[in-house]
Design goal:
Blueprint: H1 2-15, E1 30-34, E2 42-51, H2 52-63, E3 66-67, E4 77-87, H3 88-98, E5 101-106, E6 109-114, H4 123-141, H5 148-161, H6 165-178, H7 182-198, H8 202-215, H9 220-235, H10 239-252, H11 257-273, H12 276-286, H13 293-309, H14 313-326, H15 330-347, H16 350-360, H17 366-375, H18 379-385, H19 390-402, H20 406-415, H21 423-436, H22 442-453, H23 457-473, H24 477-484
Parallel strand pairs: 3-6
Antiparallel strand pairs: 1-2, 2-4, 5-6
Helix pairs in contact: 1-4, 2-3, 3-4, 4-5, 5-6, 6-7, 7-8, 7-9, 8-9, 9-10, 9-11, 10-11, 11-12, 11-13, 13-14, 14-15, 15-16, 17-18, 17-19, 18-19, 19-20, 19-21, 20-21, 21-22, 21-23, 22-23, 23-24
């Protein structure tokens, strides 16, 4: 909020409150024309003094946009505004932002609206929207205000944070066109290349970054270009080539932030080439360096990926959970939670896996979670979660029998509700419990008639096996042999 407050103070000091429209206000001093050959259209705008409404209408006219009705309070003035080679959308955002309004372009129609006072989104979304509006003042001033470059970069950062990579790239391109300083244009190109890579467009990223590396090889800015070129190679499955780019950065610019980023990225290259000892050694070096928060998060991501690849499952689980907690974007958070769930399963962390399954599940039905609990050995939890579900209770009892926890099984079976639809399964579970409790003589009484009348093949097969085991435990080899052959012997004494 400090940035927002500072922007408001600067806006108030430099532009004042929007003035009311008078009948004698004129907009004749506004000149707008399209940049020849630009596609999509870019515009030049010059305004010594004029109305924001008129500027918006004329930008739309030149750019082929239709314009929805403007708000009645959108009536401020512009003064000494120069925009050079702006994308039409950026120009609209800049003019509207200078008046404290936002722009929405949908189906080729432009709508202008005030910054909402209430949001259904997160507080971060409020900051983004307000920030975009307030940065508009600096954008309309272009390079005439020494603080303008920072505003462009802040706006691009807000757009990137929201996942609007294309908008962020367009913002930086407009900024690049508005300045003549070579260092600033090179920095803008590096950022554009990074954003192209972030949106999985490595081909375009290389086209932007390669000329910087070739023509400005000794400039420290080229260090960043080399790093991102290496990352492009990583994304295309060329880790050996990527390592060469990272080595160039470490050789030429060893004391820069680019060198730190290159070291972090090199861990991923070493992982991909299978050089695991070197990868862990590099991580050890990096963990002794003071890193920025963003660098520390990236190192955590790379370290976790390394642990995950080589089934160091507890480390991977902790890493993915930490990354998920640090992420503010729902899609990225979900991706990390999915990876954490897989690591938890491999690590045997059943309760953690349950939590993650419940977090990620689109089916909150109790049976889904309860069944999973039973299958993963969390019998008591399953029983407590589904105490009224007969199937779940019987399954949980059977799992306890198989684990040899016979007293718990007996207690749970006794508490299970009676349901005729599940009576044959209940008899099978009781028979298994009797067999393992050295009460094999009860098994034929429980199962013989049930087998004869059942049409459930899976039940019949399991019951016949249990019946054969019971006769075998009584040393009645004749009846045991018949049962194993699928022939149901008569119960002794009947």
């Amino acid at each position: 909020m400090f940035i927002i407050a500072a922007m408001l103070l600067l806006i108030q000091a430099a532009i004042g409150s929007p003035a009311a429209v008078r009948e004698d206000d004129r907009a004749d001093s506004i000149t707008i024309d399209a940049v020849p050959g630009s596609d999509p259209i870019r515009i030049n705008l010059r305004c010594e003094e004029g109305l924001a409404r008129e500027a918006i209408a004329r930008i739309c006219s030149v750019s082929g946009y239709s314009l929805a009705d403007l708000p009645s309070d959108f009536n401020g003035k512009l003064k000494n505004v120069v925009l050079r080679s702006f994308a039409a959308g950026d120009a609209l955002e800049a003019i509207a932002g200078s008046q404290g309004f936002l722009v929405k372009i949908e189906n080729n129609e432009v709508s202008i609206f005030a910054v909402p006072t209430e949001f259904n989104e997160s507080s971060r979304a409020i900051v983004r929207a307000a920030g975009e509006s307030q940065f508009g003042y600096f954008l309309v001033r272009g390079s005439s205000d020494p603080r303008s470059p920072v505003a462009w970069q802040e706006l691009a950062a807000l757009q990137e944070e929201a996942g609007n990579y294309i908008s962020a790239i367009e913002t930086l391109r407009s900024y690049r066109e508005s300045v003549s300083n070579e260092e600033k244009t090179l920095r803008a190109d590096v950022e554009i290349g990074r954003l192209e890579l972030a949106r999985d467009n490595a081909t375009e990223a290389v086209l932007v970054l390669a000329p910087i590396a070739d023509k400005h090889a000794s400039n420290p800015i080229a260090g960043d270009a080399f790093v991102y070129l290496g990352m492009c190679r990583l994304s295309s499955g060329e880790p050996a080539v990527a390592q060469r780019y990272f080595e160039i950065v470490l050789e030429r610019f060893p004391e820069t932030d680019a060198a730190v980023v290159a070291r972090i990225a090199r861990v991923e290259a070493l992982r991909q080439t299978g050089e695991i000892e070197l990868a862990w050694k590099e991580i050890g070096t990096l963990e002794n360096i003071i890193l920025s928060p963003l660098q520390a998060i990236e190192l955590l991501r790379i370290r976790t990926q390394l642990s995950d690849s080589f089934h160091q499952d507890h480390d991977a689980l902790e890493g993915w959970l930490a990354l998920a907690s640090l992420s503010t974007e729902p899609q990225i958070k979900r991706k990390y939670l999915e990876k954490a769930r897989t690591a938890a399963h491999r690590a045997g962390e059943a309760l953690t896996e349950l939590f993650l399954r419940a977090t990620l599940s689109t089916d909150p039905h109790e049976v889904v979670i309860g069944t999973w609990l039973a299958e993963n050995g969390q019998i008591d939890l399953a029983a407590r979660r589904l105490h009224a579900n007969v199937e779940m209770q019987l399954r949980a009892t059977y799992e306890l029998i198989l684990r040899g926890e016979l007293e718990d099984a007996r207690r749970l079976l006794k508490s299970a509700p009676t349901d005729l639809a599940w009576n044959h399964i209940r008899q099978l579970v009781e028979a298994e419990l009797a067999l393992r409790s050295n009460e094999s003589q009860r098994v034929p009484v429980l199962l013989t008639d049930a087998i004869k009348i059942s049409k459930d093949a899976s039940f019949v097969n399991a019951a016949i096996r249990c019946l054969g085991d019971a006769y075998l435990a009584q040393n009645d080899l004749e009846r045991a042999t018949l049962a194993y052959q699928g022939i149901i012997p008569e119960v002794p004494g009947q």
